[in-house]
Specification:
Layout: H1 2-24, H2 29-34, E1 39-42, E2 68-71, E3 90-94, H3 108-119, E4 122-125, H4 131-140, E5 147-151, E6 154-155, E7 164-166, E8 171-173, H5 174-186, E9 193-197, H6 211-219, E10 223-227, H7 233-249, H8 254-266, H9 274-277, E11 280-284
Helix pairs in contact: 3-7, 4-5, 5-6, 7-8
Length: about 290
């Protein structure tokens, strides 16, 4: 029964994703092929900000199997720059324990250790992932880290107070996140990539387009990797490992690295359903 239900759900998803593909992408197919485009830069508005474009379907394959994708808050583009691998520095924060009535995230430990092996850097886990350490990292550190990774719980609520990233001792709200990122701008060193490996961090509304991720971009982060809905802990951990391997070891652009990670999940029997790989979105600088 569960298998039949899953198949039925997937058929429904593909039906609607084909409809959106026909409306939004198919009219552009010839021009995209002619220009040999491999990365689509999308400036969604209104309800389209909630659409997982990677899961649009042309009848044969998903859009992410054809193009790397990036969302931008508006049509005005700044000059994108790739991460400087020679000066790359990373720092990671995460929760595995159940705090503030949120469930535990047992795979976060492996996720952060995998990223550390790839990118280096320091890990702040559980009670070390606190507001004081965050402030010290962003405000008092002599450098602004090029990659900041947070693996925790996130929530997008109907008010600013209900929208947050969970730390061990508090809830990091929109205004707090904005303040932390702006410390880097004051040092003339913008953060290259903020990864919010947490639920609903790209979910927004008219009050905050693209949610916490949009706030981070507006505050000065060049790129944000975030999610549109609830994440599977194990699938998220695997996706992040593939993403950083492609970004740092294979020299992919951020958009291409995310495309690679999503396609790796797609090829995995356990995670080939869009629910597992489609929530991930890159916002901002795609290089």
């Amino acid at each position: 029964d569960k298998l039949q239900q899953a198949k039925s759900e997937l058929i429904s998803i593909i039906y609607f994703s084909r409809f959106l593909y026909d409306c939004l992408i198919r009219p552009l197919e010839q021009e995209l092929a002619k220009q040999e485009v491999d990365t689509l830069i999308i400036a969604p508005d209104g309800i389209l900000r909630r659409v997982p474009f990677s899961a649009l379907h042309d009848g044969k394959q998903y859009l992410i199997q054809k193009f790397a994708l990036v969302l931008v808050p508006g049509i005005t583009l700044t000059d994108p720059e790739p991460i400087n691998k020679d000066t790359l520095s990373a720092i990671m924060f995460g929760l595995t324990e159940s705090v503030q009535k949120h469930r535990e995230l047992p795979n976060v430990d492996d996720e952060l250790n995998d990223i550390q092996k790839i990118a280096g850097g320091e890990i702040f886990l559980n009670n070390d992932f606190n507001i004081e350490n965050l402030k010290n990292t962003f405000k008092n550190s002599k450098q602004m880290y090029s990659i900041v990774h947070m693996a925790t719980h996130g929530n997008f609520g109907s008010t600013p107070d209900e929208t947050y990233i969970l730390t061990f001792d508090a809830r990091l709200k929109m205004k707090d996140l904005k303040k932390l990122i702006r410390y880097g701008k004051y040092k003339n060193k913008q953060m290259d990539l903020l990864t919010l490996s947490a639920c609903q961090t790209a979910l927004g509304d008219e009050r905050a387009a693209l949610g916490l991720a949009g706030v981070a971009i507006n505050a000065g982060a060049r790129s944000v990797l975030a999610s549109l809905w609830l994440l599977d802990d194990k699938a998220s951990s695997l996706a992040m490992k593939h993403f950083y391997q492609a970004l740092i070891h294979s020299n992919f652009s951020k958009a291409k690295a995310l495309q690679y990670a999503q396609n790796m999940l797609l090829k995995h029997n356990q995670y080939d359903h869009p629910a597992f790989w489609a929530p991930f979105v890159l916002i901002g600088n795609w290089l």
